[in-house]
C-alpha cells in the first residue's frame, strides 16, 4: 500500500523495550494502517506522561506495570490502546487495573500481528463510533443458573454483551449473572445469557438481559471510553 505508507501518520504507537527484529515487524504492520511507530526505552514512563500516543505496545515483565500506569494516569493518554507482548490472558489479568486491550503472543509472527492490528486499528485511529466493541482483558465471574461459578476472561465488550474465554463447558442458552470491573468502572453485576459458543477456541458470547437496568452503566462507560 504505497499510497497509504506515504500518507502522514494519523496516529502514533509507542513500542516499549521491543527488541529487533520484532520491532520492525510491529512497525511494518502498524504502518499499513497509517500508524507511526516510536521506539521508547528507559525513559518510556516519563515520555508517556508528557507525550500524546494513540497506542502503546509493552512487553510484560519487570517495569511493564509502571509504564502502563504512567500512560493510564496521563491526561493525554488515559484512553490509550494498550497492547501487551508475551504471556497469556491470565498473565494480563495481573495488570487488569491497567486495562490491557489485546495481547501479541510470542514469538511475534507477522500474519498474527497484522491480524490483531487490523482488528483494533479503528480504535487506534479514533474511528470510535464505527468501532462499537471495545477489546479489553479482565477477569469475569459468572454465576450460572445451574449453580456453577465460572471464571472467564473477557475478549471484547459492547453495550449489549461480551465475548469471553473459559475452560469450562458452556452451553448456549445458559443464563446467570456476571460481575466484573473495568478501569474507571467499579465492579458491576448484570444478568445475562449465553448466545453463542466456539468449543474449539473455548470462547463464547453473552447478551445482557434487556430487563436489567444495570446494563446502562456499561453503556455509559463505553460511551465515555469512546469519547475520551
Which keywords apply here?
228 residues; alpha/beta; Rossmann fold; Thrombin, subunit H; disordered N terminus
Walk me through what this model shows.
This protein has 228 residues and is of the alpha/beta class. The chain folds into two domains: 2-128, Rossmann fold (3-Layer(aba) Sandwich); 135-227, Thrombin, subunit H, CATH 2.40.10. 28% of the residues lie in helices and 33% in strands. The chain is built from seven helices and twelve strands. It has a six-stranded antiparallel beta barrel with strand order 7-8-9-12-11-10. Strands 2-1-3-4-5 form a five-stranded parallel sheet, sandwiched between helices. Strand 7 and strand 8 form a beta hairpin. Helix 2 (22-31) crosses helix 6 and helix 3 packs parallel to helix 4 (64-72). The longest helix is centred in the middle third of the chain and has 15 residues, at 110-124. It starts with a helix and ends with a helix.
TL;DR?
The chain has helices at 2-6, 22-31, 44-50, 64-72, 89-93, 110-124, 215-227; strands spanning 11-16, 35-40, 55-59, 81-85, 102-104, 134-135, 139-144, 149-157, 161-165, 175-182, 185-198, 203-208. It has two domains: 2-128, Response regulator (Rossmann fold), CATH 3.40.50; 135-227, Beta Barrel (Thrombin, subunit H), CATH 2.40.10. It contains seven helices and twelve strands.
Amino acid at each position: 500500500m504505497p499510497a497509504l505508507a506515504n500518507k502522514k501518520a494519523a496516529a502514533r504507537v509507542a513500542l516499549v523495550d521491543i527488541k529487533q527484529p520484532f520491532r520492525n515487524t510491529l512497525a511494518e504492520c502498524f504502518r499499513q494502517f497509517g500508524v507511526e511507530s516510536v521506539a521508547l526505552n528507559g525513559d518510556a514512563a516519563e515520555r508517556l506522561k508528557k507525550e500524546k500516543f494513540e497506542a502503546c505496545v509493552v512487553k510484560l515483565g519487570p517495569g511493564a506495570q509502571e509504564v502502563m500506569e504512567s500512560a493510564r494516569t496521563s491526561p493525554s493518554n488515559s484512553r490509550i490502546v494498550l497492547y501487551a507482548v508475551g504471556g497469556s490472558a491470565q498473565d494480563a489479568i495481573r495488570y487488569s487495573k491497567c486495562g490491557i486491550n489485546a495481547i501479541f503472543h510470542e514469538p511475534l509472527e507477522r500474519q498474527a500481528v497484522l491480524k490483531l492490528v487490523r482488528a483494533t486499528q479503528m480504535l487506534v485511529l479514533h474511528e470510535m463510533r464505527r468501532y462499537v466493541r471495545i477489546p479489553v482483558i479482565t477477569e469475569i465471574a459468572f454465576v450460572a443458573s445451574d449453580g456453577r461459578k465460572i471464571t472467564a476472561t473477557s475478549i471484547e465488550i459492547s453495550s449489549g454483551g461480551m465475548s469471553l474465554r473459559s475452560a469450562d463447558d458452556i452451553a448456549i442458552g445458559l443464563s446467570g449473572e456476571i460481575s466484573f470491573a473495568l478501569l474507571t468502572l467499579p465492579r458491576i453485576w448484570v444478568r445475562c445469557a449465553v448466545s453463542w459458543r466456539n468449543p474449539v477456541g473455548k470462547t463464547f458470547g453473552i447478551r445482557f438481559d434487556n430487563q436489567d437496568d444495570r446494563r446502562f452503566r456499561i453503556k455509559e462507560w463505553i460511551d465515555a471510553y469512546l469519547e475520551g
